[in-house]
Amino acid sequence: MSAIACSGMPGRAPERRLRSVLLQIFYSVRSERMLIEQLQYNPLFRWFVVMEMDEGVWNHAVYSKNRERSSRSLVHYTSRALESAGSKWYYLAQIMNRTRLFSLFGMLFVACTALFGRLGQNQRRSVLPAAHPIVLHAARVFDTEAGRIVTPGEVLVQGERIVEAGSSVQHPAGAETMDLGDVTLLAGLIDAHVHLFLHPGAEDLQTIEESVPQRTITATLAARDDLLAGFTSERDMGTEGAGSADTAVRNAINQGLIPGPRLRISGNAISIVGGHEGAINYNPEQHIFSNAAYANGAAELVTVIRQQFKEGSDFIKIYETGRDSFRDGRFSTPFQYSEAELRTAVDEAARVGKRVAVHATGEPGTLYAARAGVMREKQIPAVPTFAIAEYFADHAASPVAGARQHEQLDYHAGQFRRQLAAGVPMAVGSDVGPFPHGTQARELVLMVKYGMTPVAALQADQLNGAKLLGWEGQIGALKAGYFADIIAVPGDPIKDISVITQVSFVMKGGVVYRK
User: Fold this and answer.
1) How many domains does the chain have?
2) Which domain-ending residue is among 383, 405, 431?
3) Which among 43, 186, 345, 379 counts the fewest CB atoms within 10 Å?
4) Which of 335, 328, 390, 387 is nearest to 358 (CA)?
């Protein structure tokens, strides 16, 4: 239904009621607290985040209101809309701060009022697993623990859990069989290093130019893109200046209000004054905030950690090393916290049964992290993040900068091979956000390119990823009792790991999100 077709809607009383509702939304989205409440409880706002914009409404909004502005972010968003009709509503984040916002909300609300009941029913169906059993049938299934392909492959799902998996399973009475054809079934992918609140473009400017409500909406879209790419579980490694807004995104996903992966979240990362993410290249008179929470010394670490947990964080992220330097083939990076300070942070998190993740790229910071109980001695996996390094190298500002970053990537790959030889366990984390969400399966391809076998890379992703996120025995394998987080890819990922970038089917918790 177009906006024009609805413009003659009769009755002044309904219009006054709609105006009242729209005013409530208009004012509420200007604070983070109210955004969280709207995201969780308001059906109209939830509709915006889950469903598509009407084509006519979208065209009017873009061409009438945004023609004069062709910023890099709008160009990026527009290209994504052309790729996927389902992501048109992504632009609400760009439209929110433009003039005549009230008119746009009103136009969208009126255009969709007649369809609201049906859309609400569709939304509810999309987040609840089927009441009847489902049997997924495919040419192959990957046994994560055994590291082998089983042919053919079947998985029996009841509700949100797997009942049975193997070459043949029971077909209970009333079961629905989905024949997915010549594909391989795998457990859902796990990305242990994402940034849902970032998108391609200048990272430091995003926190200055974009409001927290706008960035939260962007994060919900990133979560959806990652899920549709096969990543059913993720660890968000910092909102980069959006505080605890990731708590709202995680909770909305858990409540079935929006589509997205299972999330472990950390709020803002923690750093020292003048350190990593320290906003040190701006006019000090402008008092630009850091993208991280400041904590100088052990006492401040404890205070900030307690505040982070109070606001809903599942774990703590600490920047242990600062800005990296690579000159004449030599890599260096300053440490930010002493071993004793890191141990204080680890002990404080452990006091409430939680963990610390550390950004550490070189010595002596990585050594301090290991001794503080964050790395090898406890068999906690390292996360190399090749995909973002490759993206920055391929998209450098100049050929000279690109060559330098490719040289640093080669050095990183060499260190990765040394870690593999030393028996350091690995997990898969892409650092996606500065490069487009939904494309991060490239990380597994690069881990194979730089020394792992396809089987080892998949096991690092699924088995070690599950352990790293604290969901061991719940995700990461197609086994009875595990969550029914299942994806399908063409071909055989053991023979060609690149097929992992071509996910054609996604089920999370027994709900099909892509088919």
Assistant:
1) 2
2) 383
3) 379
4) 335
Q: Please tell me whether residues 235 and 372 are part of one structural domain.
A: yes
d(CA 107, CA 390): 43
pLDDT tens sequence across 354-374: 999 988 877 888 878 888 876
Distance CA 508, CA 486 (A): 6
Whether residues 374 and 251 fall in one domain: yes
C-alpha distances in Å from residue 424, one per residue of 218, 427, 474, 508: 35, 10, 24, 30
Q: Domain containing 241: what range?
A: 198-383
Handedness of CA 85, 91, 92, 95 (dihedral sign): negative
Last residue of a domain, one of 109, 126, 143: 126
Supply the pLDDT for residue 90: 39
Residue 439's closest CA among 216, 225, 218?
225
Please report the pLDDT score of residue 375 as a whole number: 53
In whole numbers, what is the pLDDT of the chain averaged over residues?
A: 80
Predicted TM-score (pTM) of the model is 0.75
Is the confidence at residue 144, as pLDDT, over 70? Answer: yes
The Cβ of residue 77 has, within 10 Å, a number of other Cβ atoms equal to 21
